[in-house]
From TrEMBL:
Keyword hit for rRNA-binding: yes
Protein name, per record: Dual-action ribosomal maturation protein DarP
Keywords associated with the record: Cytoplasm, Ribosome biogenesis, RNA-binding, rRNA-binding
Keyword Metal-binding tagged: no
Domain of life: Bacteria
Cell compartment(s), UniProt: Cytoplasm
One of the GO BP terms on file: assembly of large subunit precursor of preribosome
Basic and acidic residues composition-biased segments: 1-10
InterPro entries from the UniProt entry: DarP, DarP_sf
Length: 173
């Protein structure tokens, strides 16, 4: 059970402005987010909801070479970030991260398919040909055979790489 003094203390804390430490943490978060934006390529940066001021600050950072000047400019970027749509920027970063995770999962699935083709051969190749009717059947079988030979002889997996590229091309990744 809370006492009246506990409730009064809680109300007083709600009315207080953020502490100096909290403001510093928020500013460091904005600078970190700004640093992430600066490190992005221009094509990816274009997907973010950034103002003209922020884009100008990012471009200016690319021209600065002196360490102290870069540090001061990062503080400026943090100040500019205060007026940006932080929730929108973070949502865009999250969406890009999810896209990358999806690509990685698809990539690993293709690797597993390739490994299974090499291990099982023609049995599984029939399933792949049914799944991808446009695949070059002769090339697929040849690459499977060559990949098995390379694996058994302890040679570098050149045919396995070619098989992976073939699967990637027909799957559209």
């Amino acid at each position: 059970m809370s006492t009246p003094s506990d409730r009064d203390a809680a109300l007083e804390q709600q009315d207080l402005p953020p502490s100096k430490s909290e403001l510093k943490r928020q500013m460091e978060h904005l600078q970190k987010l700004g640093r992430q934006i600066i490190e992005l390529s221009p094509e990816i940066r274009a997907r973010l909801p950034l103002s003209d001021d922020m884009l100008a600050a990012v471009e200016e950072m690319g021209r600065i070479r002196a360490n102290e000047a870069r540090r001061r400019h990062m503080q400026y970027v943090g100040r500019v970030m205060r007026s940006e749509d932080i929730a929108g920027i973070e949502a865009a970063f999250l969406a890009m991260e999810q896209e990358e995770d999806l690509r990685n999962r698809e990539f690993h699935l293709l690797e597993q398919t390739r490994d299974r083709l090499i291990a099982e051969g023609d049995d599984f190749a029939g399933e792949i040909m049914a799944q991808y009717p446009d695949i070059d059947r002769q090339l697929l079988r040849q690459l499977i055979r060559n990949a098995r030979r390379e694996r058994d002889a302890g040679k570098p997996p050149a045919s396995a790489r070619k098989l992976f590229r073939l699967l990637r091309d027909v799957s559209g990744l």
